[in-house]
Write a structure and sequence with these properties.
The protein has about 290 residues and is of the alpha+beta class. The chain is built from eight helices and nine strands. The strands form two sheets. A six-stranded mixed sheet has the order 1-2-3-4-5-6. Strands 7-8-9 form a three-stranded antiparallel sheet. Helix 4 runs parallel beside helix 5.
Length: about 290
């Protein structure tokens, strides 16, 4: 006799109030079991995270007094909105904010370019001053639009035991549109260092990953152009190392004009984990 039939058989010989009591106890046990399961799941998820508490803080910058006077009169003051990352992990802040300084000082950043010399706060202030001054040396006095520079980091969460961030920026110096730029940052809390694509790949598998990325590129092109070969002549595929992990696979982010016209925005090519077994190291594939 199974447990359910045993309970029904035994219950038939009990007073009605005892039957209600047994049923109530059964429901309470079920609730406790469900709550325990949820708690265990929460504890398991937290075990993989670095308990990141993330926020941002504005970079301390004010327009030079003479520029402020001029732009107030013309009603076209440059807009500077640059932020630093502020988390409860100092080493993550230092790496990310050094990258932000690099983006502010270098007008033409290169994705994931190594920072050979860290920019000082004086370098950042000087670069911002040059940027705002250029508005009034490069444009006519009657021009109403203003230059814009925005840089901000954001926390994307974690996959497995790595923490994921993104730095987004926008630059406008006139013309039909501004220029957006974005790059991913991946951090390994156990080693307290930044992780790159090469760090994640199994030795000797870079070419295989490139092939998978190219397949994703072709699939992306086919969503708006049936002639992939013709499109590729104008916008050839290149492998970017600007990558991040998601719950489904690796996303590869491209800047405007990298593999498509401005109207394409910043394309993202996705390679699912199902294709990455033996290509990236097992620790980077969620269980």
């Amino acid at each position: 006799m199974d447990a359910a039939n045993q309970f029904n058989s035994d219950a038939s010989m009990l007073p009605i109030h005892s039957i209600h009591l047994l049923k109530k106890i059964g429901r309470m046990r079920l609730i406790v079991m469900l709550a325990s399961g949820l708690l265990a799941g929460t504890m398991s998820a937290s075990a993989n995270a670095a308990n990141v508490i993330s926020s941002t803080t504005y970079i301390d910058y004010q327009l030079p007094e003479k520029i402020q006077d001029i732009c107030n009169e013309r009603d076209n003051c440059p807009k500077i909105e640059a932020k630093y990352l502020k988390t409860n992990h100092t080493w993550i802040n230092e790496i990310t904010n050094a990258r932000i300084d690099y983006l502010l000082v270098n007008s033409k950043p290169t994705e994931s370019a190594p920072i050979k010399t860290k920019s000082s706060q004086a370098d950042v202030q000087a670069a911002l001053n040059d940027f705002v001054r250029s508005q009034f040396t490069d444009t006519p006095e009657d021009r109403q639009w203003a230059y814009e520079l925005m840089v901000t980091p954001k926390y994307l969460g974690h996959v497995g035991d790595v923490e994921l961030f993104e730095i987004e920026s926008y630059l406008y110096t006139g013309g039909a549109h501004g220029m957006s730029y974005s790059e991913y940052l991946i951090f390994d809390p156990s080693a307290k260092k930044q992780i790159t694509l090469d760090d994640m790949l199994v030795a000797g598998k870079k070419s295989r990953f490139k092939t998978l990325a190219y397949d994703a590129y072709q699939a992306w092109v086919k969503t708006f152009d049936t002639n992939v070969r013709s499109y590729e002549k104008n916008w050839p595929f290149t492998l970017s190392d600007n990558v991040t992990l998601t719950d489904k696979g690796i996303d590869i982010l491209y800047q405007p004009y990298a593999i498509g016209p401005y109207a394409s925005g910043m394309p993202i090519l996705s390679v699912p984990y199902s294709q990455l077994d033996g290509v990236i190291k097992p620790r980077f594939i969620p269980k």
